[in-house]
Design brief:
Structural class: mainly alpha
Distance between the termini: 36 Å
Number of strands: 0
Length: 28
């Protein structure tokens, strides 16, 4: 199931993007 690996990779990238853009990570 290649789509599962692709999905997990996308989720990781999304999480990284949210962490970088969210102001919450700034005060953390």
């Amino acid at each position: 199931m290649a789509w599962r690996g692709h999905l997990s990779r996308n989720l990781k990238e999304l999480r990284l993007h949210f962490c970088q853009t969210s102001p919450a990570s700034d005060s953390a």
